Amino acid sequence: MKTLFAALVLAPLALAAPGLCHSNDSPLVDHVRTANQRFSDVAVAVAEGYAPIPCASGQQGGAMGVHYVNAAFLKDGVVDIAKPEAVMYEPSADGKMKLVAVEYIAFKGPAALEGQLFNFTGAPNRYGLDPFYELHVWAWKSNPAGHFSDNNPDVSCAFAKP
Question: How far is CA 14 from CA 47, 136, 140, 147, in A?
């Protein structure tokens, strides 16, 4: 259902602006980008307690990238725009990690950030987590599927290290 919603409602917004998404598309995207720009250097994420998990790709194509997850933020029960539970990077051929998105995760819901509702993921799930609510925000790489879609058809795990 959320995929259909993204295709019908959010995709036209993403297609309106190549590259980065701008505030006329969604103010939340700009707020997330401003609050988290420091993560453009993956070393900052590591210094702030984020650790990588394997690159996640989608069954319908595309990927989410390599998630750097902060376990303390997962457990604290707080949704804070400047402290996402995960920071997402796309690995490149030269080994560098390019910041593409962040993910907010809450175990109580329904959850929202600046009025944007999170998606619900039941259990069991591929992450081995209890049921949770999540919101991906593609603030650094345009997503044809929509600003808040889980996977981005323009992201690849091809250069991810095992």
Answer: 32, 14, 12, 6
* Cα gap 57→75, rounded to integer Å: 25
Q: Are the C-beta atoms of residues 135 and 127 closer than 8 Å to each other?
A: no
Do the beta carbons of residue 144 and residue 153 sit within 8 Å?
yes
pLDDT in tens, 101-150: 999 999 999 999 999 999 999 999 888 889 999 999 999 999 999 999 99
Determine the Cα–Cα distance for residues 65 and 54; give it in Å rounded to an integer.
8
User: What is the distance between the alpha carbons of residues 103 and 64, in angstroms, rounded to a whole number?
Assistant: 10
Single pTM value for the model: 0.84
Tokens standing for residue 30: 């700009």
In which residue are the tokens 């036209």 written?
A: 12
Question: Helix count (H) and strand count (E) of the chain?
Answer: 5, 9
| Helical spans, DSSP H, in 6-148 | 11-15, 27-36, 42-47, 71-76
pLDDT tens for 35-55 read: 999 999 999 999 999 999 999
